[in-house]
Design a protein that fits this description.
With 396 residues, the chain is of the alpha+beta class. The protein has 14 helices and seven strands. Helix 2 crosses helix 4, helix 6 runs antiparallel to helix 8 and helix 11 packs across helix 12. The N and C termini lie far apart (70 Å).
Length: 396
Amino acid sequence: MLIKSFLRYLRYEKNYSAHTVEAYENDLMQFKQFICGDEIFNPQEIDTVIVRRWIVFLMNEGYSPFSVNRKLSSLKSFFRYLCKNKSIQSSPIKNVKGPKVNKPLPDFVKEKEMSQLFLDLEMDDSFEGKRDRAILDTFYSTGVRCAELVALKDEDVDWASSLLKVIGKRNKQRLIPFSSQLKDVLLSYKETREEEIQFDKKAFFVRKNGLSLSNSLVYNIVKKRLSSISTQSKRSPHVLRHTFATSMLNNGTDLNAVKELLGHESLSSTEIYTHTTFEELKKTYHNAHPRAKKKEVFMEITIQAIHFEATQKLEMFIQKKVSRLSKFYDGLLSADVTLKVVKPETNANKDASIKVVAPNHDFFAQETADTFEEAIDRCVEKLERQVLKVKEKQIR
């Protein structure tokens, strides 16, 4: 079967991890199920129209634009493989575009909160207390991924040089320096582990029964510990990786150095953290400066265009129009704008919907018009009336 052949190619020729190959398999089998169910899958019967139908199906099923684009990427890789092996002459989906993704800024924990967390953990001298502190400090001090931490072995820790050897994505090895402070924490954990636990000699971090940790267990440890000092919704190992990168950049580290420490292939993956540090700087300024703090209102506006690419001009128009709502109501938190074309054969086929979130209220408007600009105008007018109505009630 061609899908099985492709998966073997990824695993043994491209050297992808078992986890990555499984993700490809899930995406491709889902596409196969959509196309032909349990019947024989014939790639030569696939065309652009079928793939776009699949994208619409996924969006209607509630998949995020990010997930849909990942699945589309898996499918494109599969068809490139078929072209390379002469199974098909050309890829029918080479130029198919997925839904636009507005990347959210990475979540991170503030330095003050991390300091409080480690202070609290110092009070716990049990094996699990020392282990959890070592895990959290390793994430925060080195930026390793969860899978990289779980895979650490005793021989991967170079105590003399203070270096961690980790195996990252696609089995790429990198060396990460660690501080004398983290060294003390790791040695304290290691000493307690050797005194109290009959453990798996292969793994550096283990459970109380001596078995190796799993990704899910580490996730639960981090979530539990972060819950004591942070109210943010995301409390995962990856948040600590984001925290490491943000702290490094905030303290003047070169972007390329952070890229190497994180094991990113592309600098563009690391650049997202510069946006985070800039947003924090901007918020600090507007909260502190007497001539700025009363004027600036932070409302995050997300624009999602379904099955087409919104122009920069249209996006700027939407940002300007929706931002006006902040003048009528203090404390608007976010606005989600969705654009789509309905009934292409008709004139009034541009559909726009806007959901605005405030601390105690949600506002929503949806309109269809000849142009997206007109639909957005109508939506904003509706929202203004809703906002003013709520504000009047509050004044009374």
